[in-house]
Amino acid sequence: MNARIPTFRFCLLTILILAPCPPLPCPAAEEADVELLEQQAFRAAVDRVAPSVVRIETVGGLERVGELLFGSGPTTGLIVDPEGYIISSAFNFIHKPTSILARLADGTLKPAALVATDHNRRLVLLKIDVDQPLPVPEVAAAAEMRVGQWAIAVGRTFEGARPNMSVGIVSALERIWGKAIQTDAAVSPNNYGGPLIDVRGRVLGVLVPLSPQSAETMAGYEWYDSGIGFAVDAEHVMKILPLLKQGEDLHSGVIGIALRGQNLAVGEPVIAACHPNSPAAKAGLKAGDRVLQIDGRKIVRAADIKAELGRRYAGSKLAMIVLRDEKRIEMEVELVAKLEPYQHPFLGVLPMRTAGDAPGVTVRHVYSDAPAADAGIEPGDVLVLLGGKPIEGRDDLLRRIAAFQPSEEVELEIRRGDEIRKVKPMLAGLPEDLPPEELPPARGAAAPGAEQRPQVGSVQLKIPELKNEAWAYVPAGYDPASPPGLVVVLQASGRFEWEDVLTRWKPHCDLYDLILLAPRTVDSASWQPGDADTVGKFIEQVRADYKLDPTRIVLCGREAGATLAYLVAGRKRDLVRAVAAVEGLPRSPLPDVDPLHRLAVYSAAARKSRRTALIEKAVGRMREAKIPVTVKDLGEVARDLNIDELAELIRWIDTLDRI
User: What pTM did the predictor assign?
Assistant: First the structure.
């Protein structure tokens, strides 16, 4: 505590210095006096809010949600209306309890009903019957909050007359895309749903687990007691209270755009793609539009768009101004709760990967019974125009064709030798079948000495801030002019022998232009949810050192490794293009498919595996979300892929750049 001296301590020190007093005591005594005054102030602040802090007890419900085992411990709520309305964290109820009880500050126990949920900020509103008006706390004005001011996280989960408390500061404002206050006070399931208060006992916000990377049900829980905690601004809570009282669930507002670039903090506010039939498409937004304003606020970075959209709800109407071809265009967009599932269109070709000066895309392979085959396109043809505009390369074609939907017709111009032909194939959806046994090479031989190459062969990776280590294998034929894919192998156990992994994968990496990455755990023999961020950092490290093919970045895992692979894919949707899961299933839904971010899944399982029924349900949900899933039957008994099946998987990875 002594390392931080917020405004409150400065005030105390100023009083001590300016007030008439006898000769100054020794510094140690003065420090002790200040500490005592602080403690008294903190206790007084908590005592002021305590009558409004209730203990929430639940009965029944699921024993496990994802990897989290739920116990019967109490949680916290905050009275927000004298008539018996209590706000709490939605995290406290994701196990769907059969009954809810609220214990008031005076010990009275009341049954509570869940009235409504704010799915955007992860809050719930409860209601109890009351005999007399309940005490409601004072709310601090958002405009008065300052980074560095004292913040006290309050809960009522332990036995005793007084609430439990932890002291810290407000460490940031407008966090989680404009939705939350950040504090370094200890925040955990003990005080989720309780108030974050200032030194005067006024409520700054309601404590909830949140994550800037994910909107998953469990997102943010892994940070508890880490020095990073979040609270939803109390002024906002009071603003939405009338809607929640009506029993109206609130959902995040979705517009249906993808932004250009992977780093939103520095990226330009340019729309890269619009989801068909989305609010954005219906309002007339187009790829290439530069967003200038949203509801009168100037937009400078891509992150500004994310923040403006992130804090709003479905049904909100936005006044937007965009720049298109040097012309300012004004439009109104109404956000929705959910988009229609997007399905990536499929022409039916594999492209060559050899870079060249000539524009267009050279066809490597044509799928039988695909639109390209029906249109007469053949291997060796060069796709030069789409919709009358030149095709600059594979990535340009992928981006532009994503603006169409299956069953839509596209106009293509192809070059075959000296002949130019025009065709109009009708697009299909991405297939789920395994590729044929033989495919022609994707590129020619690398030009020797074309440019300086980084280290090849086995490479040990270390990231200074991580205890974990990882090994990578880079083929000797690595050619940045024709970038390789990346296969991340996550063993069933987080511990492994690198030489065994290398022996199994090296021949395939050499043949199909793939870099191999194998991270390992540190403190346990199995993967933990927190390892998802670690794996993501190692992927970023490889991407920083080597140029990669963005269409062939794949996570391969077995059992717990497969579950982790799904988790990483969800958190790194801008990077990961496929998951190959052997006897594994996702513990939470994968992100919605969008035009810019493809995702394909290979799922292998035995018919009598203990996970079979759950895996089949997960495959069904993914297919409903229009994620193409290739299913592999491993026979009766659960096992790893054999040599032939691994070769088949590698061929599947080799076709992920299909168009």
Answer: 0.77
